[in-house]
Amino acid sequence: MYDYNKDENVGGDALDYGRSAVSEAHELTKKLIKKKIKRAQIQKEQAKAAAEAGKQSAKATAEVSKKAAEEAAKIGKALFDAGRRLVSSLVELIIENPIIAVILVVIVVCIIVLHVVKVDLLSLFGSMSESVVAGTYTAYDEDIIGVNSDYTKLEKELRKTINNTESDFPGYDEYEYQLEEIGHNPYELISYLTAAYENFTRRDMKPVIKELFDAQYNLTYTPRTETRSRTVTKYGIENGKVYSYQEIEYYTVSILKVKLNNKGLGSVIASKPLSDVQRARYNLLLETKGNKPDLFEDLYTDIEIPDDIEVPPEALTDQTFAAMIAEGEKYLGRAYVWGGSSPSQGFDCSGFVCWLLNHSGWSVGRTDCNGLKAKCTVVSAEEAKPGDLIFFKGTQKNKAGATHVGIYCGNGIMLHCGNPIQYTSIESNYYRKHFLCYGRLP
C-alpha cells in the first residue's frame, strides 16, 4: 500500500527548497547590482581625477611655455644686441682700415670661385672619364690581334689567288692585270667592331669580317680576243732573182683581264648602318687608336723626317718631272687611305703614284706596287734620276715583292703617300732597311 503521508512530506520539503533558492538568487542579484554601481562610481571618480590632472598639466605646460618664450626673447635680444655691436665694430674697423674690406671681398670671391671650380672640375673629371672609356677598345688584346690576323689572312689568300691566275686559267696568250693595292687599316677595322659589337671575341667576328672583306674587294676575270696586225718580211723570185717585200699580217690573241677593285675598308664602314652614337664612337676610337697606339705597327708613318728637304731646282727643268711634282704637291698633307686612288677618295702609296703618272704623260691605269714595278726597267742607284720610281719591300707583313712606292726627286728624297703625303728622306734608317730598287718607265 502506498504511503500518502510520505508524499505530503516530500512536497513540503521541495517547496521549502524552492523558496530558499529564490531568496538566495535575489540576494545575489542585489549584490551584483551594488558591485556594478560601485564600479561605475569608481570609473567616474577616475575620469574626474584624470580631467583634473589634465587641467593641471595644461596649466603647467602653459606656464613653462610662457617662461621659455620669455627666456628665448631675452636670449634673442641679447644676440641681436651682440650682433649689432659686432657689425658696428666691423663697420668702424673697415672705415678706419679700408684694406680689410678688400681682403673680405677677396675671401668671399675666392670661396665662390673655389665652389664653382670644384663643381666644374667634378664635371670635367666625369667627362674625361667618360671620354677615356668611350675612346678605348674594350675587347681583349688577343681577340683584337686575332681578328686583325684573320682579316690579313683573307687578304693573303686573295693575293695568292691572283698570283695563281696563269696556272688556274691556262691557255691565254696574254694576261692583263689591273690591280689596286691590297691592305687595310687595322684601326679602322677594330674601331668599327668595337663601336658595333663592343667587347667582341675573335670567334664571333669571323662571319662579320668575311662580310667586310667581300664588300671591300672585288676580283673579276674578263676574257677577250683582240685582232692585231704586224708587218712581216716575205720573199719572192722574179727573173731568177730573190727579192724581199713587206706585208701586213693579221692575227688574233686571247687575253684574260684580271681586275681587282679595292673599295677601301673605310668606305665600307661608312656605308654601314651605325647609329649616331655608334658613328661618333667609331670616329673617337679611330682618333685615339683605342688608347692602344702601339697595338699595330704603323707601316706608313715616317720615322725620320729632316727639316731641310727640298726638290733640286735643276730637276724641275724637266717638264715631265715638273708636271708630276706640281700635281703631287696639290695633295701634300693628306692622310693615307687604304685602297685610295683619287683626290675624292684619297690615296694609298700606289694609287698616288699611278695618279701622278697618269696626269703627267703616262698611262699606267690603276695597279699596285708590283704592277708598277713590272712596267719599269730596274736601274742602279747611280743611274737613278728625278722622275724614276723607288720601290721598297717588307713594309707590310705577309706580302712579297714591292710593298711601297714613291717618286724619286733626287738629292736622296722622294715624294710619296706615307702618312700623310709628303717629301721624305730615303736615307732614314727605316727606308734604307726596306729599300728594294729604282725603276724607270719607258
TrEMBL record:
Residues 30-57 form a coiled coil. The keyword Repeat does not apply. Residues 318-442 form the NlpC/P60 domain. The chain crosses the membrane at residues 94-117. One of its GO terms (biological process) is proteolysis. Keywords: Coiled coil, Hydrolase, Membrane, Protease, Thiol protease, Transmembrane, Transmembrane helix. GO terms for molecular function: cysteine-type peptidase activity. Signal peptide: none annotated. Belongs to the peptidase C40 family. This is Cell wall-associated hydrolase, NlpC family.
